[in-house]
Write a structure and sequence with these properties.
By secondary structure, the chain is α/β, with parallel strands linked by helices. Helices cover 39% and strands 22% of the residues. It has 6 helices and 7 strands. The chain has helices at residues 15-25, 45-52, 67-80, 97-101, 126-135, 170-199; strands at 4-10, 32-39, 57-59, 85-88, 107-111, 139-146, 156-163. Strand 2, helix 2 and strand 3 (57-59) form a beta-alpha-beta unit. Helix 1 crosses helix 6 (170-199) and helix 5 (126-135) packs across helix 6 (170-199).
Length: 200
């Protein structure tokens, strides 16, 4: 059986990457294999996590370069490692329509809310949880979806709800959403799409 070759895009600490790597080592992504980690930031701790798990990791810096140059750098690495599937795991750089079009139904993204709530321009990271608390909603969660060239578009693959508790701060809520939803859904979605790709 040929396994889908997965690249994970990161920008920061890499907790979602760690969840994916642990899932792979536990045999929960049998149809896929993480073979490459790319970071938009030189000093991202996620690259250290990749190294600790024996996965090649590289920084493709976004600083001071045009979008085309940045994406050409990403594409060079993706081609070199014969990648089938991209997982955006806390990747804060926007990808262009042209880049996304080159990877139809092959880019997974995780968003820390139940889409369509708290998504779109300006909603990322802690800001999503701040807004959920400000609005007084009782339930939030995470969504894993395929990325397409339409802004905020793409097929939703799975969602998981997480309860908001009295006294939650944005940081506490963020951690709970990661532990109860993001770290559960991302490996499941990576396996689901890897399975789909292995049948094509």
């Amino acid at each position: 059986m040929s396994r889908a070759r997965i690249a994970v895009f990161v920008s920061g600490g890499g907790t979602n990457l760690e969840a994916l790597l642990n899932a792979q080592e536990d045999g929960r992504i049998p149809h896929g294999e993480i073979v490459l980690v790319l970071s938009s930031s030189e000093g991202a701790y996620a690259l250290e996590r990749a190294k600790n798990h024996g996965v090649p990791g590289f920084a493709v810096s976004r600083k001071g370069v045009r979008q085309e140059e940045f994406e050409a750098g990403l594409s060079d690495k993706l081609n070199a490692y014969k990648i089938d599937l991209i997982v955006l795991a806390g990747f804060l750089s926007i990808l262009s329509e042209n880049f996304v079009k080159a990877w139809p139904d092959r880019i997974l993204n995780v968003h820390p809310s139940l889409i369509p709530s708290f998504c779109g321009k300006g909603f990322y990271g802690l800001k999503v949880h701040e807004e959920a608390l400000k609005r007084g909603v009782k339930v939030t969660g995470a969504t894993v979806h395929l990325v397409n060239e339409i802004p905020d578009g793409g097929r939703i693959l799975m969602q998981k709800a997480v309860e908001i508790l009295p006294g939650d701060t944005p940081e506490v809520l963020q951690r709970r959403v990661m532990e109860q939803a993001e770290w559960v859904l991302l490996p499941q979605a990576a396996e689901l799409l890897s399975q789909e790709l292995s049948r094509r």
